[in-house]
Amino acid sequence: RSREEAKNLSKIQHKNVVSYIGVGEYKKNVAIGMALIVGQSYDDYLQRHGPLPWKAAGEDMRQVMEGMKAVHQLSILHRDLKPSNLMRKANGDMIIVDFGLSKSSTSAITTAVGTLVGTPAYASPEQLHGKAPTAASDVFAIGIILYEALTNRLPF
Q: Among 9, 90, 93, 100, which one is least packed by beta carbons within 10 Å?
């Protein structure tokens, strides 16, 4: 999975997605180099500042959607979008991180049918019913994050 994460990250170049630097391997342990992001996880940000005004939450999620648009255009799914996998810089820039469960449509890595990948609280209905996630599943997760940003709680 680490090799898959590195391969997927190396393809993505967008201001709202963590920048890939390189990958190294030592004794079958894989290390992925990524840009340092000075900021805080969106999870921490929401705990300190939530619930957010709708314009602020909307702007944060607009940036996440822009980043995910670039990811999806490369036929890559994140599959685990949640506040702890987003970073918010002090200037308000949102950065998508942790592509450890990402999957490319060209990937040889398969997930067993009926296996939930990701975090259940942010999973789409089709994922919860054992179906394969799609780009719409990532968008659904962003909707859950937006709801959480606006209300300070999960919808389900």
A: 90
d(CA 145, CA 41): 13
Give the active site residues. Answer: 80
In single-letter form, the type of residue at position 84 comes to S
pLDDT at 1 over 70: no
The count of C-alpha atoms lying within 13 angstroms of the C-alpha of 55, restricted to the half-sphere facing its C-beta, is: 0
Q: Residue 142 contacts by C-beta under 8 Å, 6 or more apart in sequence?
A: 61, 64, 65, 68, 81
99 three-state secondary structure: coil
Is the dihedral angle over the CA atoms 77, 78, 80, 83 positive or is it negative?
negative
Q: Which amino acid makes up residue 14? A: H
Q: How far apart are CA 54 and CA 65, in angstroms?
A: 16
8 A C-beta contact, residue 86 and residue 37: no
Give CATH for domain 2-151.
Answer: 1.10.510.10
Domain boundaries, the chain: 2-151
pLDDT at 138: 97
